[in-house]
Specification:
The complex is a heterodimer of chains A (238) and B (472).
Chain A (H helix, E strand, L loop, with lengths): L1 E4 L3 H5 L2 H13 L3 E3 L9 H4 L4 H15 L4 E4 L2 H13 L7 H9 L1 E3 H8 L8 E8 L3 H6 L4 H8 L2 E6 L14 H4 L1 H17 L4 E4 L2 H14 L4 E4 H5 L3
Parallel strand pairs in A: 1-2, 1-3, 3-4, 5-6, 5-7, 7-8
Helix pairs in contact in A: 5-6, 7-9, 11-12
Chain B lengths: L9 H9 L2 H25 L2 H17 L1 H14 L3 E5 L2 H14 L4 E4 L3 H5 L2 H7 L3 E4 L2 H8 L17 H12 L7 H18 L2 E4 L3 E3 L4 E6 L3 H7 L3 E7 L3 E2 L2 H16 L6 E5 L13 E7 L3 H4 L15 H5 L1 H6 L10 H12 L1 H4 L11 H5 L6 H14 L6 H15 L1 H15 L3 E2 L2 E2 L6 H5 L4 E2 L6 H10 L1
Parallel strand pairs in B: 1-10, 2-3, 2-4, 4-7, 5-8, 7-10
Antiparallel strand pairs in B: 5-6, 6-9, 11-12, 12-13
Helix pairs in contact in B: 2-12, 3-12, 16-19, 20-21
Classes of the chains: A alpha/beta (238), B alpha/beta (472).
């Protein structure tokens, strides 16, 4: 199966290992990975800050880059949601609406793609320890992907997955919120970390590098012994 | 603007909220209880999504034909002998209410809970007239006794106080001698209030839903105080926001079902009071005179705009009860009587961006509010629309942010610029990097690294790895 990888800017620049794990994992599952070099960012930082004009420039560029792909797969629920929003954003635009829809229709978050398209629930991964999973807001509420990551994690050998208390509460990332509303964000991420500690998890697993950068950055600052992993890295563990 | 509470800048209010551990404990506990109860009540009803869709349809239909239904309501209230006044502004509403009260030479007024009277600061106007205004909703009563502490939640106004604090307020102000047991506190308040109902000249209520077809008003309470406020005083004034209307009882029933379940997780509240005009011949209770004050106060400016869905709101506070930001800062931080996600959308519309420009940013856009709303208001999308308005039409965004976003637009729309920028990034931040981490970031990174570590950009980008791998 031909998969066109939308790696996301965060992975491209800051979390290269997540990108590598995504490629290796999908290849092991029989996919051929294409990586359009022209890809940049989905436009969400500008869009969510109210800069729609600037965001649309980025979006048009991404539409041009991905519109001929068969399956667009991305290791981020939030960036996948942004792609899915494109037709809504370009509604009524005769040049772009259809093209945006084409991109949106072919976009899948990584775990959603593995479970729903490849129909695989056990990727043959192994990781020893106790983990809890952070349900990212955009992936869960807007993209509607709730079960796929948990289904995949349940099949990871050696891994005990325990529910995260108050999992429905946002971790406090929210893109520019994390810097614009620093003091509030700090309280939110601290409560999230308390919940992770409460279940004595060795690993905090998530499917969005934004949330993981926030939670992980705070865990590191506080020197907590919790390892933060992207689900692609977990599923690629042997 | 009248709905404003609390002096001080937004960030100062937030700081105060964050450091109020009593309030935060109370809010977190209430959120968890209310959320669980709401989910259980929704599940028990079954087909919750269909109910939401129906609620949305009813609210949208009513707003689309608001002029028609308001006319119908007004005619039917008058037919039953009531008086109707359309107030375009808060001042007009208060003037009318004061005129009615003065004409009765009223001294004592009892009130059941109403957000719109808070919005127009009606109590202050009446007090200026020399009247004593007594809140009879337990939460509102506690706040009033506590030197007019403003409400922090649209359904549970005293949510920010715990029972020990309430006991202290009662001891100080009401010669209360018993414990912090809620039953004892409530009994004391009830005892104090009973006398007030009997001696009040005027009763004032809000309105959950006005029924256009019959000219009735509906009040949803758990304490029964609205029954006494409407049954005992000779004159009754009901104040309603102009959008709080349904065509018939059939729609009222749907919305009440959504309201009570969403607000407190109950199938029904203890009392649902329906009133149609003043007392008629042969009736044993009810007011001799009934006035309905329909308040616009900025609402008609919202009609027909992209923000119209906010007028669908039935004031259940389900969005407040799931909001992770409200959870940590409490209601007073919003600086408006409307707090939480609904407040962050509504306050800038009714009160202007000068006072409320920060509120649309006090959200991570996590969409918990949108998911919880029983009438499907896309709250997080409306917050985004506010941000867009602030940037594009109001021009209130900081210059540094505008420049950064301009650069983002250019960089993300050009693969060449993106590649170049990302290539030099590790070198650019090298002076701030230790062990692949940035702990004290420069410029815009500082706000991030004040709280958390920031990963240094990797020397080998993903794209470099992928390309090299292909070449091997």
């Amino acid at each position: 199966m031909n998969v066109t990888l939308f790696v996301t800017c965060l992975v491209d620049l800051f979390h290269v290992n997540v990108g590598k794990a995504t490629v290796e994992l999908l290849e092991r599952l029989g996919c051929t990975i294409h990586f359009p070099e022209a890809q940049t960012c989905c436009g969400q930082p500008a869009y969510n800050s109210g800069y729609v004009k600037e965001a649309k420039e980025a979006m048009k560029h991404m539409i041009r880059t991905f519109e001929h792909a068969e399956y667009i797969v991305t290791p981020s629920g939030s960036c996948a949601t942004m792609f899915k929003e494109y037709p809504h954003i370009f509604k009524g635009d005769s040049e772009w609406e259809e093209r945006a829809k084409r991109v949106a229709d072919r976009t899948y978050e990584l775990t959603q793609f593995i479970v729903n398209v490849l129909k695989v629930e056990d990727v043959g991964a192994r990781l020893e320890g106790k983990a809890t999973y952070h349900t990212s807001c955009h992936m869960t509420r807007l993209l509607g992907v709730k079960d796929a990551p948990l289904t995949l994690l349940q099949h990871v050998k050696g891994l005990e997955v325990v529910p995260l208390p108050n999992a429905h509460n946002c971790c406090g990332f929210g893109g520019t919120f994390s810097v614009k509303m620093g003091p509030i964000s700090e309280q939110m991420v601290d409560e999230k970390i308390q919940c992770i500690e409460q279940v004595e998890a060795d690993y905090l697993i998530g499917a969005d590098c934004g949330c993981l950068m926030n939670i992980g950055g705070r865990i590191e600052r506080k020197g907590k012994p919790i390892r933060v992993m992207h689900i692609a890295e977990v599923l690629n563990s042997r | 603007m009248a709905m404003k509470i609390n002096m001080g800048e937004f960030h100062e209010r937030v700081e105060k909220g964050i450091h109020n551990t009593f309030m935060r404990g109370a809010v977190a506990g209430a959120q968890e209880r209310l959320r669980t109860r709401r989910l259980e009540a929704a599940q028990e009803l079954g087909n919750w999504e269909e109910w939401r869709a129906l609620g949305e349809e009813i609210r949208q239909h009513t707003l689309e034909h608001l002029d028609y239904y308001l006319m119908q309501l007004s005619e039917n209230v008058k037919k039953r002998g009531g008086h109707v006044f359309f107030a375009q502004t808060a001042e007009e509403a208060n003037d009318y209410i004061c005129r009615v009260v003065a004409s009765k030479q009223a001294k004592k007024i009892v009130k059941s809970k109403s957000m719109v009277t808070e919005e127009i600061h009606m109590n202050a106007a009446l007090e200026k007239l020399g009247c004593e205004v007594i809140e009879t909703d337990l939460g509102e009563y506690i706040l009033q006794v506590d030197d007019h502490d403003p409400p922090s939640h649209i359904v549970a106004p005293a949510l920010h106080k715990n029972k020990e604090q309430i006991r202290d307020v009662f001891q100080e102000k009401l010669a209360y001698t018993k414990t912090e047991k809620p039953e004892e506190l409530a009994l004391h308040a009830r005892h104090m209030l009973r006398h007030e109902y009997m001696t009040a000249d005027v009763g004032i209520t809000g309105c959950n839903f006005a029924v256009a077809e019959t000219g009735s008003i509906t009040l949803v309470t758990n304490e029964g105080n609205a029954d006494l406020v409407t049954a005992l005083p000779k004159t009754q004034i009901t104040v309603m926001g102009m959008e709080r209307i349904v065509p018939t009882f059939e729609e009222m029933e749907v919305l009440v079902s959504l309201l009570t379940r969403s607000a407190v997780g109950q199938k029904l509240t203890s009392y649902i009071t329906v009133l149609t005009g003043p007392r008629e011949e042969g009736e044993v209770d009810g007011p001799e005179e009934f006035h309905l004050v329909i308040v616009d106060n900025g609402r008609s400016d919202i009609l027909g705009t992209e923000f119209q869905p906010v007028l669908q709101c039935i004031r259940c506070a389900a969005c407040v009860n799931v909001c992770p930001v409200y959870r940590h800062i409490g209601g007073h931080s919003y600086g408006s009587i409307y707090s939480g996600p609904i407040g962050a959308v509504l306050s800038p519309l009714l009160g202007g961006y000068d006072d409320y420009k920060e509120l649309p940013y006090a959200s991570t856009l996590c969409a918990a509010c949108t998911e919880a709303c029983p009438v499907k208001i896309p709250l997080h999308e409306l917050l985004l629309k506010h941000r867009q308005t602030i940037v594009e039409r109001e021009g209130k965004a900081p210059i540094s942010e505008k420049l950064a976003m301009k650069a983002f637009g250019l960089g993300a729309a050009s693969s060449l610029l993106y590649k170049l920028g990302s290539k030099i990034a590790p070198t650019a931040v090298h002076p701030f990097t230790t062990n692949d981490r940035i702990s004290k970031g420069p410029g815009p990174l500082k706000a991030w690294t004040d709280i958390r570590e920031f990963p240094a950009p990797e020397k080998e980008r993903f794209r470099d790895w992928f390309k090299q791998r292909g070449e091997e």
